[in-house]
Design brief:
Elements: H1 10-25, E1 39-41, H2 57-60, E2 62-72, E3 93-104, H3 116-143, E4 149-160, E5 163-174, H4 177-182
Parallel strand pairs: 1-2
Antiparallel strand pairs: 2-3, 3-5, 4-5
Helix pairs in contact: 1-3
């Protein structure tokens, strides 16, 4: 039996981001539910919002932290990627994460379309979610003041399938612990 290897580079940053995002989203009013929405780590190149016969991740509200990419960035100006680096010559890792939040969008009924008021409420909810994501990044930076951060623009998710939301990417500098752990 092998002992699982715990990632010393990505996992600690992701865990801190999840805690900060959950804390800040709990401050956002949710007209649909009194229960704070879950904040999960999600794998893959995108977050698919799942639907079953009894549950709907979007309308229940879902928020996530997803690792997008990791690359060496210690010899060049952060967050530029270093070239020609061997695995144990990395001076700093740059890890890009996506933070996202979704909720129900107004949907049409057989004889009526959503009203301007319903769209306004949905839009303002998105703004609140994006503000919570921005505050989560401030929370992370306050807890890790010596970590370099590069924040990308916040963007809306296409409204489709009764779902709407926002995402924001952030690249965070992390120490090159991988080779140090093997020593």
């Amino acid at each position: 039996m092998t002992t699982p290897i715990s990632d010393p580079v990505i996992a600690p940053v992701a865990a801190d981001l999840v805690i900060c995002l959950a804390t800040e989203l709990a401050k956002v009013p949710d007209p649909v539910s009194e229960v704070p929405r879950p904040v999960c780590l999600r794998p893959g190149d995108r977050v698919d919002l799942l639907l079953s016969q009894t549950r709907d991740e979007c309308c229940e509200g879902l928020s996530w932290v997803r690792m997008v990419r990791i690359y060496p960035s210690g010899q060049q100006t952060f967050p530029l990627q270093d070239s020609r680096v061997t695995p144990c010559d990395v001076l700093r890792w740059a890890i890009t994460f996506e933070l996202g939040a979704v909720r129900c969008a107004p949907t049409a009924e057989p004889e009526n379309l959503p009203t301007c008021d319903e769209w306004t409420e949905s839009t303002l909810n998105q703004y609140d979610d994006l503000a919570a994501i921005r505050r989560a990044l401030c929370c992370y930076q306050q807890q890790n003041p010596y970590r370099l951060m590069a924040i990308d623009p916040g963007e809306p998710i296409t409204t489709e399938g009764g779902c709407t939301g926002v995402t924001m990417m952030v690249t965070i500098g992390a120490p090159p612990c991988d080779c140090l752990e093997q020593s």
